[in-house]
Design brief:
Layout (H helix, E strand, L loop, with lengths): L2 E6 L5 H12 L3 E2 L2 H10 L3 H5 L9 H8 L15 H19 L6 E4 L3 H5 L5 E7 L2 H12 L3 H23 L11 E4 L5 H14 L6
Parallel strand pairs: 1-3, 1-4, 2-3, 4-5
Helix pairs in contact: 1-9, 2-5, 4-8, 7-8
Length: 211
């Protein structure tokens, strides 16, 4: 069955594309179920796991505060006081991802959570990155969510910085670098249906998905 990992910048249509790809490939879409499993393993409320989850927008600033890795004015990071707690959530998330991709595991589509870095160059995994220029991503978000542009701009900037900090802190990597992915798409330049089709074709070329 295999796994599709999908990393997406804010406004690039990640949730919509991931859900549609999972449906087309007849694979499970592992999204909110991941923090639920992490919470169970750590014995904490689901809300606590979501507040340390890389894809939950409302928890991103709290997560970065826990990491102590808020980017400073020159792009560095601040020292951390609470890394062990954040590390526990990250380690359990990695275990869940590994089990999803393991032989005999369910396979599926995973959005975010640095899954491309966790699962690496496995032959049964397709790593996809969706992005686009900031203004285009903002325009897409305004059209998709029907909220004020300035409000979404602030949310986009906070979201991008927090996710970059998460990947940089734990994996010493640039989440947007093409070297981590098999397929990189500017999803603001194409209809999302076309983006979904590109990902599905690429996944099937690697033998991923149910017949």
């Amino acid at each position: 069955m295999g796994v599709v990992t999908l990393s997406a910048s804010y406004g690039a249509g990640g949730p919509e594309v991931a859900a549609a790809v999972a449906e087309r490939l007849a694979l499970p879409f592992h999204d909110r179920v991941i923090p639920v499993q992490v919470a169970g393993r750590l014995g904490v409320p689901v809300e606590e796991a979501e507040a340390n989850d890389e894809t939950v927008v409302t928890g991103l600033w709290r997560m970065v505060a826990n990491l102590g890795t808020m980017p400073d004015a020159v792009g560095g990071v601040l020292p951390s006081a609470n890394v062990p707690d954040a590390r526990a959530f990250r380690e359990q998330t990695e275990r869940v991802l590994t089990e999803i991709a393991a032989p005999g595991g369910p396979g599926g589509v995973v959005l975010g959570r640095a899954a491309a870095l966790v699962l690496g160059e496995r032959p049964d995994v397709l790593n996809v990155r969706l992005g686009g220029r900031r203004e285009r991503r903002l325009e897409a978000a305004v059209a998709r969510y029907a909220r004020p542009a300035e409000e979404l701009r602030r949310e986009m900037e906070a979201n991008d910085r927090a996710r970059e900090a998460y990947v940089r802190h734990f994996y010493r990597a640039d989440a947007s670098s093409p070297k981590h992915y098999h397929l990189v798409v500017d999803s603001t330049a194409l209809p999302l249906e076309t983006v979904v089709e590109l990902v599905v074709v690429a996944a099937r070329s690697r033998g991923i998905g149910r017949v």
